[in-house]
Structures are given as structure tokens and as C-alpha cells.
Design a protein that fits this description.
single chain; 731 residues; alpha/beta; 2-enoyl-CoA Hydratase, Chain A, domain 1; Rossmann fold; N-(1-d-carboxylethyl)-l-norvaline Dehydrogenase, domain 2; eight-stranded mixed beta sheet; six-stranded mixed beta sheet; 29 helices; 22 strands; 12% strand
């Protein structure tokens, strides 16, 4: 079977239809390119064919892009000389699209046949790069469709002619948001932005495409004409020069040089703009090969696409019947509860939002109202949609309203006594099969489950704040949690369109267990006299969205102090962070509680904007005469986290390294370029990681001691994905 087929009508217009076998949306693979190439050759050599329409056999979409599973394995499949193999493969692909673009014309632009892309809907990645090679792009008026080049979001860039064509079509400045930010647009906005040429009613799509072909248009691409100049000027032109200077500054400012694909993309655009088009394609292929050879790209694709998608589709879901949630009770209408009610109602569930006072419950419901108002203002929602969603939320103090709920999510204060009381009150009302979930970031699930008379149906669902924006949900199994509860939690997370990870119960679970050492290592360095700017900037240059000191300001210093006291009380003499407490308790005593009080490690203006580090830090902890080098600071911050991830795997808190990597990136922004903690260890190699841990432990203490698992793997020269990924997928 083939993914492409062609039919020619009586008027001599051929239609190539892309219809990937076994997929709900078209994705490109190597065989697909070969099939498309054969049909293009057939169309160009058939004198009866006047022109070609390329469209989709899938309702409402053109293509979702390349099959990233194949891209992730391209390097492995490229032979003994992978760089040359990749370059040869990319060059062959460029030749196919260039054949479409030239349409059979001779070198004087004579003859040839026009190609029209007719897009029923979504066109992403190669699904837009093929149309960009066509002579006209017509899209159906489908407001749900997304059109763009999102490759940069998964660690690569549009390497099938996307950078060369879009830069010449829109100019470097016009192309930059689509290339460097992966901006996606609906068809009308895509037309306004210059990505496509025309938007028509869906039932007129093919007729309009045919009309264009039969009009005998002049279809030579501007960059194939003599005297063509790039919009906005080439790099050596004063206007073009300023564009590239600004773009370079913007890319470095946003990525801090930590993301190889962004730097390579900019190089491909800049160098390609200096030369003729066919040479620009070769330059693009060279830089794309450079990115594919970098282990970062494979790690990002694996974690942010392949693994993330697998987890969202229930890779670790117990084999039990469907547990789709119809009615959810949310206990507590504070910020977390209000956010949970919002995302649940938006997913179509009936929601009961309960608080002690009606005023508080109503305020929690108003959070959804305010959110919808913002959506209406931006044109993303309507008054009708707002009314429907608000109609799904019942804000009340009456526990009886929970009758019929199949899932309860408790989001009250982080106090075991309060949570136990709420648990008992709820279970007195709901059906015995109802699943009870507690939203907690630190309290052990097994202990909280003791308030339930059915611990099998008790589970942890840890949301991150703000609920509506954060894409990860951490599901925690207590010692007695049963498969139905796990399946219910996973099915609920699927309904609200977030990514789940499932972990076993332990102090701080997985995510907080790893992020707290990151913050603590930053605080330790403050006490040692390391410059705060060095600490935070070292983290940002690793690809973290914020440094540890800025992060503790954002999450609030008094919360950190509260967690420290609770942890110390629970661990007693085994408590390892006394050196950190000195800093955090001192800041708390100075009433510098972070952004919420406009005073923390940073000074803030009256609008809450950071103005710089507070000079009181240096007064209390004088800056050391000799500052550590950047790599030393970065390794302390990095290993503080990844060693906790390894220990979590050793202790079976993590059951799947895919969840460890995806969870780290989505929960706290762990260096996305690395693919996550385990991918990073594989990039640097376990032997080097163990050696570096030994050095750090000798210099800074036992917290950097090499875990037994890492030591064993280092001695055997093993990687985490070679050892554990197969086990996880088999399970």
C-alpha cells in the first residue's frame, strides 16, 4: 500500500492525495518521499497533465509533519559515516521538493507545470514545507487548523527547505517568529502573515486549486528570477544587517546559547541569505545534519515527543476498563482548587466545587469566569462557551452535592488533620467505588490514605501551579493504591489534556525531591560567598528558565522555610540541609519573603518588576575573593538534581525513566535541550558522571556521592536508555 495516489481529470489536472495508511493524520516517512517523487515524475512526463494539486485524504488536516520516530533514528540508520549519510538523505529530499518547485521548467524558466497545495486543515513541519515548494498555497477556512513550522520546539529546525524558502518569501524579520518561535496560526492569520496565499470555503478548496492551474499562471518562484532580492535586505545590506544583529541577540537572550537547534537555524538563515537559492539549500542541509548529529536533538525528540506522547496515551496505564470521569468533586476553592475546577469544566466534566464558606466557593468559581473573560478578549472564547463552562460548575458548601461523583480531588491546606477530616466527610457521601485523590506536594500518600476506609481507591494527584498553564500532573501511588485508582487518575489527566507521570510514594515524591536540591545548592553557594548573579546565570546558561535564587523568590521564601522545618522534624538527625536553613531562615526573619512581598533575594519596584539582587545578601554573606568557575557552579546545580533522579530510580519511586525525563522538563524546566536527567547522564556518559560525582563529593560533601546504581552502570559502561527503556516499554 502507498501513502500517495494520483488521479487525473478530463481537464488535465492531476490530484496527488496524501493519505498515510493507519494514521488519523498524515505523517511523512522515507517510503512516503519515494512515493511522492515517483508521482511527481509521472505528472511531469505526462503531456496530458497541465498541472498538479497536492492535497490530503484526511478530513480537516493536511499533515502533522515528519514521523519523529524516524528522525530520532536517522543518525543510527545513516551507516558507518552518519554525517555523510544524513547529508545524502537530506539532499535527496531537497531534490524532490526542488523538482516540485521547478515544475519541469528549463534553466530559462520556460515550460513546466504549476503545483498547488490544497490544505484542508492543519499543516505542520514537512506538511508546510511541501506546500512552500508549490506555486500557490490555498487553505480551507478551518479555524481549528494550525499552520506553521514547530520543529524548534522539539530540538530541530525546519530542515527540508523551510528556512531557505520562508526567509525568501517573508524576509528574515517576517520569518523569524515562525522559524525561531515555532509560531502556529489558523488559516486566516497564516494568510495575513504571508505563510499561505488564499483561504476559501472548505467545499471550494479543490475547485479553487483547479481554477488556478487552468488560468495558466506565471508560476516561477521569485527567487528563481533574475535580480531577486530578499525582503528586508540581505545580510550585507544595512537593513538586513540590522535584522540579523537583532535576531542573533534575541536568540541568545532567549536560549543563552544552550539550545543547539536555535543557533544552527540562525546560521542556516544567515549563510543561506548570502548565496543563490540552490546553495542555500545545501547550507540548510549541512546545518540540519549538524543538529541531527548533536545528541541534544535525539534526546529532545525522544523526551518531548516520543516519550511524552507515549505517556499521554497511557503507556503505564493498568489494564482495567475505561475510567473516564463524568463528575468530579473538588474540595477546597483556593487557587489550586479553583484551577482544578477550571480545567475539569473545560474538559466537559460536571464539577462540584466545595469550600467551608459559600463566599469562598463562589470566589473559586469566579476564577473560571475571569479566565474565560480573558479568552473572550483575545478572541479565543465566546460568551456562549463561557456560560456553558460556568454552568458545569456548582459552587457550594453542601457535601450532599457530591452524590454521583466518580472522582474526588481534595485540594485543602497542607495539614494532615484537615485533609483527614475532609476525607472522612466526603467518603460518608460518595459511592464506595468513587476514587479519592489528594492534591499534595509533600505529604506522604500512604499516611493520608489512613483516613480512608478503602485505601485501594486512594491516590495522590499532584498539580503544579498555575494548574491551567502547567502541563504536567504527578500521580502518586500509596502502598495500597489499586489499579482502578491509577487508571482513573490517568484517564482524568488525559481528559484535561495534560501529561501524566506515575510514581510511588516517598518524601517529596519525584519532582519536588529533585527541584529542592537545585534550590538548596543555590542557597549553599550564597552562604559560601558565591555571587548571586553567577549562580542564577549559570543555571540559565544551562537552559533552565530561572535560576535557583529567582525560583525561590517566585515560590516564596516562607514556603521554603515551612518545608524545611517540616522535613527536619520528620528526619531528625538524618536531616542534611542545616547549611541551607541558615540562609532561608535569615531571609524569613528579615521579612524578605519573595516576589509576593516585593522583597526577597531581589529588590522589586512597586509593580513587582525585578530591579536587581538585594545588597543585603552581600552584607550578610560577603562575596568570596575567589569565585568558582562557571562549569563548577553548573555541575553543582546539575548533579544536585540528577543524582536525586537516580536515587528515585534506585528506590523504585520512579518505575520508568521516560517519566523521569518528561516529568523533569515539564515540571520545573529541567534543561530541555538535554532531554531530561537520564538523557543528560547518557549524553555525558555514566563513566564520566561517576568520576565527576567523586570529585564533587570530595570538594563539597556526601550529597554528591555516586549512587550505587550509577557506579555499577559506570563500571559496565552502560547508558540508562539502553538498560531501562526496553524494560519500561515492555511493561
Amino acid at each position: 500500500m502507498t501513502d500517495f495516489n494520483m488521479k487525473t481529470d478530463a481537464d488535465g489536472v492531476a490530484t496527488i492525495t496524501w493519505d498515510t495508511v493507519g494514521k488519523s493524520m498524515n505523517v511523512m516517512n522515507q517510503q512516503g518521499f519515494e512515493d511522492l517523487n515517483a508521482l511527481v515524475d509521472q505528472a511531469l512526463t505526462d503531456d496530458a497533465i497541465k498541472g498538479v494539486i497536492i492535497t490530503s485524504g484526511k478530513a480537516g488536516s493536511f499533515a502533522g509533519g515528519m514521523d519523529l520516530n524516524i528522525i530520532a533514528k536517522m543518525k543510527e540508520a545513516a551507516g558507518d559515516n552518519p554525517a555523510q549519510g544524513l547529508m545524502d538523505g537530506l539532499s535527496a529530499t531537497h531534490a524532490i521538493l526542488r523538482k516540485i518547485e521547478r515544475g519541469g521548467m528549463d534553466d530559462k524558466n520556460k515550460g513546466g507545470k504549476p503545483f498547488v497545495a490544497a490544505l484542508p486543515g492543519t499543516a505542520l513541519g514537512i506538511g508546510l514545507e511541501i506546500p512552500l515548494a508549490c506555486h500557490r498555497i490555498i487553505a480551507a477556512d478551518n479555524p481549528k487548523a494550525k499552520i506553521g513550522l514547530p520543529e524548534i520546539m522539539v530540538g530541530i529546525f525546519p530542515g527540508m527547505g523551510g528556512t531557505a524558502r520562508l526567509t525568501r518569501k517573508l524576509g528574515a524579520m517576517g520569518a523569524s517568529p515562525f522559524l525561531l518561535e515555532g509560531k502556529l496560526s489558523d488559516p486566516k492569520k497564516a494568510m495575513q502573515g504571508g505563510l499561505i496565499d488564499e483561504v476559501v470555503p472548505a467545499d471550494e478548496l479543490l475547485a479553487k486549486a483547479k481554477e488556478y492551474i487552468l488560468s495558466e499562471p506565471k508560476f516561477v518562484k521569485p527567487w528563481d528570477e533574475k535580480g531577486y532580492k530578499i525582503p528586508g535586505g540581505a545580510p550585507y545590506h544595512p537593513a538586513g544587517f540590522m535584522t540579523f544583529v537583532g535576531a542573533s541577540a534575541m536568540v541568545n537572550g532567549k536560549t543563552q546559547g544552550a539550545f543547539p537547534a536555535a543557533k544552527a537555524l540562525l546560521s542556516a538563515v544567515y549563510e543561506g541569505a548570502l548565496v543563490p537559492f540552490d546553495t542555500a539549500l545545501k547550507i540548510e542541509a549541512r546545518w540540519f545534519t549538524n543538529v541531527l548529529m548533536n545528541p541534544s536533538s535525539a534526546a529532545m525528540i525522544r523526551s518531548l515527543f516520543i516519550n511524552k506522547e507515549a505517556l499521554e496515551k497511557g503507556a503505564n496505564r493498568p489494564d482495567v476498563p475505561d475510567q473516564t470521569v463524568k463528575k468530579v468533586g473538588v474540595m477546597g476553592a483556593g487557587m489550586m482548587g479553583a484551577g482544578i475546577a477550571l480545567v475539569s469544566a473545560m474538559a466537559g466534566m460536571e464539577v462540584v466545587l466545595i469550600d467551608q464558606k459559600q463566599e469562598a466557593a463562589d470566589k473559586g468559581k469566579s476564577y473560571t469566569s475571569d479566565y474565560m473573560d480573558k479568552g473572550i478578549k483575545r478572541g479565543k472564547a465566546t460568551e456562549e462557551k463561557k456560560a456553558n463552562i460556568l454552568g458545569q460548575i456548582t459552587a457550594t458548601t453542601d457535601y450532599a452535592a457530591l452524590e454521583g461523583a466518580d472522582l474526588i480531588i481534595e485540594a485543602v491546606f497542607e495539614d494532615p488533620g484537615v485533609k483527614a477530616e475532609v476525607t472522612k466527610n466526603v467518603l460518608a457521601v460518595v459511592d464506595k467505588d468513587c476514587i479519592f485523590a489528594t492534591n499534595t506536594s509533600t505529604l506522604p500518600i500512604t499516611e493520608l490514605a489512613k483516613a480512608s476506609d478503602n485505601a485501594e481507591n486512594f491516590i495522590g494527584i499532584h498539580f503544579f501551579s498555575p494548574v491551567e498553564k502547567m502541563m504536567l500532573v504527578e500521580i502518586i501511588k500509596g502502598q495500597k493504591t489499586g489499579p482502578n485508582a491509577v487508571a482513573k487518575a490517568l484517564d482524568y489527566v488525559r481528559q484535561i489534556r495534560k501529561t501524566p507521570i506515575v510514581v510511588n510514594d516517598a518524601r517529596f515524591f519525584y519532582c519536588n525531591r529533585c527541584i529542592i536540591p537545585y534550590i538548596n545548592e543555590g542557597l549553599r553557594m550564597v552562604a559560601e560567598g558565591v555571587a548571586p548573579s553567577l549562580i542564577d546565570n549559570a543555571a540559565r546558561q544551562l537552559g533552565f528558565p530561572v535560576g535557583p535564587l529567582q525560583l525561590v523568590d517566585e515560590t516564596s521564601i516562607d514556603l521554603g522555610a515551612k518545608i524545611a522545618r517540616a522535613t527536619k522534624a520528620a528526619m531528625g538527625d538524618a536531616y542534611p540541609d542545616a547549611a541551607v536553613d541558615e540562609v532561608i531562615f535569615w531571609m524569613e526573619g528579615e521579612n524578605r519573603l519573595g516576589r509576593k512581598t516585593n522583597a526577597g533575594f531581589f529588590d522589586y519596584d512597586e509593580k513587582g518588576k525585578r530591579r536587581g539582587y538585594w545588597d543585603g545578601i552581600e552584607a550578610k554573606y560577603p562575596r568570596a575573593d575567589e569565585q568558582p568557575d562557571l562549569i563548577e557552579v553548573q555541575h553543582r546545580l546539575m548533579f544536585a538534581q540528577v543524582l536525586e533522579a537516580v536515587r528515585a530510580l534506585e528506590e523504585n519511586v520512579l518505575e520508568d525513566i521516560r517519566e523521569g525525563d518528561v516529568g523533569a522538563i515539564l515540571a520545573w524546566g529541567f534543561a530541555p535541550w538535554s532531554g531530561g536527567p537520564f538523557s543528560w547522564l547518557d549524553i555525558i556518559g555514566t563513566p564520566y558522571a561517576a568520576e565527576r560525582c567523586d570529585q564533587l563529593a570530595e570538594a563539597h560533601g556526601a550529597r554528591f556521592a555516586t549512587p550505587a546504581l550509577l557506579r555499577e552502570m559506570a563500571d559496565k559502561g552502560q547508558s540508562f536508555y539502553a538498560r531501562f527503556a526496553g524494560e519500561a516499554q515492555a511493561a
